[in-house]
């Protein structure tokens, strides 16, 4: 496949470009195949890329990556071969594997074979994000010492995904949500993936360094406040970024603390509360299904019905029939 197929993509995380919403980087279908690449920006410090290629001929392209942080790829389908110009080492992004790199700036050669499909999630964690979330330990010291170099690229690990990570990655890739709920969904799931990846690497590399994230009384109070805000704004919830600013707790700590304190991520908590409220309204109120869907934050009744079925194993209309007065 010619270089022109990817010529509009200049590489990940050019610091002169800032995107605040999901942006299509590449979308092309021609005689060479299909190529889709989208970018989602969280706080200008975490970037998520969703790749979807279905190729008739091969891709061969060299691109500059200005990352200044950690990059990792979660392979969902197929294989991409990569080669660092700095280290001259080859590595692979492939199905069911996580490949993590520490990069300041590097020129990387990409190759996908012809007659193949490739799907992956790629995360970029900028230095500012790592400064905020990493505990003070040898891992953090190693990362920031390396990133002081102008041009640096090092593979940190290449590990096989466990079932939990595979499930999370596919949930992100095929998000069923729309609008504000989709933003909250992607932020919440992405932070969970990031925590699992960094935690796994930290444990593997520094088993004797157990300095973890601790929660103060202020943090606990902030988490309870965040819970209250989500309950009061169920049909139009704030994003993780907005919520973290309101309660003055960084988004990474908000995500982890929420799960630790309430046994659910913010998104999972919100979804459960929505479903429980919907269940009561279906059983006891006089609202119809479209009205209930809007009350609990769904723009489309079909999406609400699917979510309700997934949670309770029955459609909303089946539950409505148990009302004392059903028309």
Automatic annotation (TrEMBL):
Keyword Nucleus assigned: no
Keyword tags: Transcription, Transcription regulation
HTH araC/xylS-type domain residues: 224-322
KW Transcription (keyword) present: yes
GO molecular function: DNA-binding transcription factor activity; sequence-specific DNA binding
Pfam families: HTH_18
Protein name as it appears in the record: HTH araC/xylS-type domain-containing protein
